[in-house]
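User: What would this chain look like folded?
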Amino acid sequence: MSASNGKKKYRGYLTWTDDMDQALLDVLVEHYNSGDRTVNGWKPHVYTAAVRNVREKCNMDVTKDHVMSRCKTFDKHCNILGRILAHDGFEWDQERNKLVIHNEDAWSSYIEKNKAAACYQHKVIKNWDAISLIFSRDHAATSEDVSAGAENGQEVAMKVAEDFRDHTPSSPSTSGPSSQYRPGPPMLTQSNKQGRMKRFRTKDALFCMSGNIKNSFQISMKSNETQEEPKTACPKEIFAALQAIPNLARDDLLRTYCILTSSDRKFECLMALPMDMRKDWLLIEIGKK
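Assistant: Here's the prediction, encoded as structure tokens.
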């Protein structure tokens, strides 16, 4: 470790303090609201501004690599915690900056399928409002989702096998009972090129239906996506409306910003109120009244 201009300089691993996180997130929130985060990541000037702000406010000579590494950590927190909070029985404690588990059975079942979430039971994550605002986005399906899709696929395949079984021609009738005749399970059949019938096995039904199973799973996932409320309000417009409310604390602004950017309807409700009632309504929404 060396010193330059009175600043502590780090070339490798860096331990981030609460003040450093705050300085970094202040810049990221500002540039997020300005539309400087694209599908490919932050625009280059955002990293420059973030590095400069952390250096000036915390007297730490951090680099762009340090900032990018910290952003990856925030993104990981948002990914895992966001999925947890999407399930019933869990919520976030804004005062203690920790996860609240109301249903222990649900938690045990969840971490059984999502091992990486186990350490978040007691983990303290400060600045969650800012982190969830900046880094929240649609992630890939969880192992729980994939498992459910696979089970649905198996049910579809078995239903197809039953349909084939129902349509199998019955055995020709005989003139009388035969002591050698032993009724067995119906045999699934399909025609080959010579016109003869061969056994249609269960795995054949599964193979034939694999494309339909995949399509059904994708349609199911898309139907879940379309259930989200349409977001037509501009984030800049929402942020400006909140800034116009007199005496609205910074933390309250961020919390209500998260709510309004995820629900166009709530933003409409806010704008329908007179200015002197908007702060009280927002405080009710975040549970402070």
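DSSP finds eleven helices and nine strands in the chain. If you want, I can go into more detail on any region.
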